[in-house]
Amino acid sequence: MFDFVRKHTKVMMFMMFLLIIPAFVLVGIDGYKRFNDSAQAVARVGGRDIGQAEWDFAHKNEVERIRASSPSLDPKLLDSPQARYATLERLVRERVLGEAADKSMLLASDIRLARDLQQNPAIASLRRPDGALDMERYRQLVASQGLTPEGFEARVRRDLSIRQVEAGVLTTAFAAPLVADVSLGAFFEKREVQFVNFPAADFAAKVTLSDAELQTFYDANKLLFQAPESVNIEYAVLDLDAIKKSISVNQQDVKSYYDQNVARLSGNEERRASHILINAPKDAPPAERQKAKAQAQELLAEVRKAPEQFAEMAKKNSQDKGSAPSGGDLDFFARGAMVKPFEDAAFAMKKGDISDVVESDFGYHIIQLTDIKAPKQRSFEELRAGIEADLKTQQAQRKFAESAEAFTNGVYEQPDSLKPVADRLKLEVKTANGLARNPPAGATGVLANAKFLNALFADDAIHKKRNTEAVETGPNQLVAGRVASYAPARTLPFADVRNAVRDRLVALRSAELARKEGQATLAAWKAKPPEAAVVAAVVVSRDDPQGAPQKALEAALRADPAVLPIVAGVDLGSNGYAVIKVNKIVGRSAPTDIAAKQARAQYSQVWAAAENQAYYGLLKERFKARISVPQATGTIGDVATTPTQ
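Predicted structure:
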């Protein structure tokens, strides 16, 4: 079927034109889109579907946001099934809370929207020296998220409405101090325990195995000793780096760019100032702030009478403990380093000037501008290499969309080789051998991308040796591959995995010996409880386990206080066995007033979060929220592994 399509492309395009255009006429483009989206619905909230495309787009944005904030993070973690499912859960949550906001008529006013945008650090960084917003850079910022300014502001407004839904729970939740103290007392409770740990590793030397036992274990567990299916491939990557190699920058453009941007490229102006601060936090009572302002006004009058005494007056009167000892000196700073009112005043002054009283969130400042450091203009030769790199990047970004279309079409139209499209776009065809469906731990790059690996192991790629589709593996990055050879999963010969068989069987036998030893000790302790001289008692708690294994600690803290003392055995699985004797409860040490206050505050936050989650559960039921794709097992960061060979 696909061969027919490839060989008769023009005929098929004509037939599709005859079939699809009438469909648009009958149901409209929107109706056709809704039909397509419903066929790929992955979740549903309030009668509306969340489509596969919306999920993919949301996850792409989430990955780009995380990569921008944490460049060193392993990209593989971001494209795992668990990470993708977490994105879908966030989409559903936003949709549920959005439905609740609509039903409750919760809207964000223009004033509230403007205030939120002003407080956004990313947007604040786009302001020019005169305080006006650089609209061109603002459009570029929101365009990087696939939005227009209007769309971005609509999304922010929507987020503000959603926050109001949760604020109704989070801001009204409270935990009574008495209830908090009881719960915290139980959580931090201590217990006097005697315990003996039997680590499995301590019994490994006692395990002796014959070749027959190893062979028997291997025969009974061959699935544990399989080599996964693998492929040897050719692949080509289209990204900005590949496009840059084909770009040569016109030197006249480099010089023009230098002439137009030399001031910006040379660096930012810095200013040095000293200040006298009278503390008055923004949440202080109005009377307190007014008193502080009056004090600052009095000091200003004195400073203006004797400007040369500014440093001495700062030492005596400034309440900024960091700068007061040095006469209020704040050293050199550029724009963005200080709070805005302070910065605006400092950059509007001349050297030697003393400001009026400047109000900020910290209180009231009197500023003396002591120096101005203008940036030294850098020569064309100093900046040439950096400008060329910037221009190459800009041109590559503009050219990427065109090249991406050619790459995507090329790998499909000539499915038996990557060379034609690689030659056309000047890409390198690389090779890689022994790739499995699941990348090894620590693998990065396109060969660790789950989408690309899935495409390589598809039927068309493995059995028909066709190019994969162009797979997006990152921002401005596409990759396509072709399977050169395929090796199915196979059981490795016993001789090749003998050491791995022995290690597994030794681990099992060691755990069995530890369990037997532990159970014998448990029986002895039950018959005659150990004396403290034999096994020293220790006081354990959640924040101080005293070396007790986690499972043993949990068992000790869960023991019924009504039946203490109690002796119990704890199976630690492959780690061995532990025997514990819980003697008595040791009350929580009385915390200091400050520690008690902090613990209650944390407890209240946890309580509020629990109430909010419970409320969200009710909203999910009310708006009939459901996810129709299977939940990914494991946690984000889990990596599938194969047996050691």
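Summary: The mean pLDDT is 83.
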